[in-house]
Amino acid sequence: MMRTSALILSLAGLxxxxxxxxxxxFRAAKPLAxxxxxPLPYDYDALEPHLGKQTLEIHHDKHxxxxxxxxxxxIAGTEMEDDDVEAIIMKAHESKNQxxxxxxxxxxxxxxxxxxxxxxxxxxxSGKLAEMIDRDFGSFDDFKKEFAxxxxxxxxxxxxxxxxxxxKLSVTKTIGAGNPITDGLTPVLTMDVWExxxxxxxxxxxxKYVDTFMDxxxxxxxxxANLEKAM
Length: 231
Fold this sequence. Notes:
- This protein has 231 residues and is mainly α.
- Helix content is 48%, strand content 9%.
């Protein structure tokens, strides 16, 4: 879900565009391209020591950028050329175009993931989000355990998600480029567990990265805003 190169999103704009029901996309009235690579919402070194500058440079400027580039190449000259990224994801999913789905979904997933972190993040949420986590998982600690299990057991590569289905929150995991929107869910939080997301800092210790993500990186303000606008 990204605006065109002429309308690269700011942090506030991105937070607004992702919710409520993940259907608006980042499209201008007359797009120049279906999707574009948004800048990080913070400096490359802002998440140190938890995620280093080199990790973010490679992850954003190489991996994320490649997904965006390949998606635009694949839709060039097709009826999807002016679609927003969510429409592309859904059409690729429904037509079983796995190559297009992988690149479009990974473009969306990464743009969302960057916003799910911030310098000085982590800890516990507050307000309505905290109340719903307690209601739907039993306690924040129980939610953390379930989210960590999702991240640690996504075999090979994938994502852990906190979703809203219109009534309650749930944790899911996807493998590869999977995204819960194809199941009718609204993601409010994600964690990337592809190795390129953490390997330079944690090597094979995915569980340590997962714990650090929850304790020191999660942007609960963004998660709460997503939930509020989805309700």
